[in-house]
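Note to self: keep these together.
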Amino acid sequence: MKDGSGEFHTHGFGPVFDSESRVLVLGSFPSVKSREINFYYGHPRNRFWQLAARLTGSDIPETVPEKKALLIEHGIALWDSIESCQISGSSDSTIKNVTPVDIGLIMNGADIMIIACNGAASKKYYDKYLRNVTGMDAVKLPSTSPANAAWSFNRLFEAWNSVLGEYIR
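Structure:
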């Protein structure tokens, strides 16, 4: 659907988690590149996978199975706050007509100890739609997006590690 304010998209792929997941990292909604490859943080300049590898002391995963394995092995659940919305390209600022994810799927299937939002948009939509479902406050972490060029990789690592380091196995 096009109406001049973005196309309607559905997330297209589900969460990554298991019963041992303790950390939940939420993005906002998949980028164009992520929607193309049907998995999280698909843009080659997004620093999420490099950061996850450093946080866990692992090699940077290349394939989707390697990425899923890294998350599961270290107790990290990964999803987005939004299941469907209108969006122009990958721009979070254009998001409209939001349907949130069914966060109960993870909250009932894992013992989540901390919820971290990858950037301001994720936190905004978490607070608006999901906070009342989980009963947990989320921590807003600086975005790993290439659009967040003000944050060097080392600064990102320090910020993420200071919040999540004790929870990641």
